[in-house]
Design a protein that fits this description.
Helix content: 25-40%
Number of strands: 13
Number of helices: 11
Number of domains: 2
CATH topology of the largest domain: Peroxisomal Thiolase, Chain A, domain 1
Largest sheet: 5 strands, mixed
Structural class: alpha/beta
Low-confidence stretches: none
Strand content: 15-25%
Radius of gyration: 19 Å
Mean pLDDT: 96
CATH class of the largest domain: Alpha Beta
CATH superfamily of the largest domain: Thiolase/Chalcone synthase
Order of helices and strands: EEHHEHEHEHEHEEEHEHEHHHEE
CATH architecture of the largest domain: 3-Layer(aba) Sandwich
Distance between the termini: 31 Å
Length: about 325
């Protein structure tokens, strides 16, 4: 039999503080109707002072392990754009806090595509025999890098974490990661960026510009690039899997914007009701959005055993990626 990485458990976590559209409209030139119409978002969760991305990752990772009935993992990967520190990576600390002190652990930085990138790395490690169980986490405290005066970004993003545990199994099992497609185009680096804080800024010298500390995005250009690349990547991974578009029961897209997910479904020829959505209550949680959507889809019954699932995302870099699997029978945690 062909060895494969099999989804054994999922876990999600969002911080308790909820920020509604009404709250944002009291300090920004916006309204609940404006935000809902353009993004599909009604609320988002944000971290309180003193809570970090690592804290969120530990919560989600712990839940994934518990829900899988596993006592640990021998590989930890954390996908994030908002690490606890520039150095070191967040993953080793997350692993240690979960009681995993002798395992390899590293971060993946692919912004909103981060979870799909990390999923590929974790699946490859398990399939190759490097690891028996890989904990793959997407975690973000995006509120810490947003310009509070910028309504184009402040209304979109939220904080949270989601995680999956992959175990060694067989390709014929439900839950096996069947295929992953990834891509990038660095010529679009400025579409989604935080310009300050890195070697590029420091090597120039001089006084850093305060505005470069914040996340910036060219929303219109990102919309068209995201729809195009997510649809192309989806078609590629479906062909490699041997599925037709009509075979897909559930589309779990990066929860960037309801209109983007609907446009991707339309491009593929999928009925919009096959899309799994949780963006209305959590916003865009970047690398955490797909695993959070998986956890929510399991909890509310949207994802059921036997569903043929397509994951797809687009993020800064620019990066994009898609993956396929048949949803397994998982316990609801």
């Amino acid at each position: 039999m062909t060895r494969a990485a099999v989804l054994a458990g999922v876990g999600g976590y969002v911080p308790p503080r909820v920020v509604t559209n009404e709250e944002l409209s009291r300090r920004l030139d916006t309204s609940d109707a404006w935000i809902r119409t353009r993004t599909g978002i009604a609320a988002r969760h944000v971290v309180d002072p003193g809570t970090s991305t690592g804290d969120l990752a530990v919560e989600a990772g712990g839940r994934a392990l518990k829900n899988a009935g596993a006592d640990g993992a021998d590989l930890v990967i954390v996908a994030t754009t908002t690490p606890d520190r520039p150095c070191p990576a967040t993953a080793p600390t997350v692993a240690a806090r979960l009681g995993l002190t002798d395992v390899p652990a590293y971060d993946v930085a692919a912004v909103c595509s981060g979870f799909v990138y990390a999923l590929q790395a974790g699946a490859a490690a398990v399939t190759s025999g490097f690891a028996e169980r890989a904990l793959v986490v997407g975690a973000e405290s995006f509120s810490t890098i947003l310009d509070p005066t910028d309504r184009t970004t402040s209304v979109i993003f939220g904080d949270g974490a989601g995680a999956v545990l992959l175990r060694a199994g067989e390709r014929t099992e439900p839950g096996a990661v069947l295929d992953v497609h990834l891509g990038s185009d660095g010529s679009m680096a400025d579409l989604i960026t935080v310009r300050g804080g890195g070697a590029e800024e420091r090597s120039r010298g001089g006084t850093p510009r305060p505005e470069d500390r914040y996340f910036r995005m060219d929303g219109k250009s990102v919309f068209f690039a995201a729809v195009r690349r997510m649809a192309e990547s989806s078609r590629t991974v479906l062909a490699r899997t041997g599925w037709e578009v009509a075979d897909v029961d559930r589309l779990v897209g990066h929860q960037a914007n309801t209109r983007i997910i609907q446009a991707v479904a339309e491009q593929l020829g999928l009925p919009p009701e096959r899309a799994v959505l949780n963006i209305e209550r959590v916003g865009n949680t970047s690398a955490a959005s797909i695993p959070l959507a998986l956890a929510d889809g399991l909890a509310d019954g949207t994802l059921v055993a036997g569903d043929r699932v397509l994951l797809t995302a687009f993020g800064g870099g620019a990066t994009w990626g898609s993956a396929t699997l048949v949803w397994p029978d998982l316990p609801i945690g």
